[in-house]
Design goal:
Blueprint lengths: L3 H27 L4 H19 L8
Length: 61
């Protein structure tokens, strides 16, 4: 069994950790998601792939 003061100190430490984690989560949720860049790069790769896969017109010399 723990001494009440030790248990209270552990509770305060855990509560501080949880508050810091909640604050970090709030900041991260306000930031613009990184998926925007990932989505743009992905669609650019799809577009390039489609251009490479498209048949090229015959050259008339």
């Amino acid at each position: 069994m723990q001494h009440p003061e030790t248990r209270l100190a552990l509770h305060h430490a855990r509560a501080a950790d949880l508050r810091a984690e909640a604050h970090a989560h709030a900041l991260a949720s306000r930031a613009k998601p990184a998926r925007d860049l990932r989505t743009r790069v992905g669609w650019t790769l799809v577009e390039v792939g489609l251009r490479l896969a498209a048949p090229r017109p015959a050259l008339n010399p």
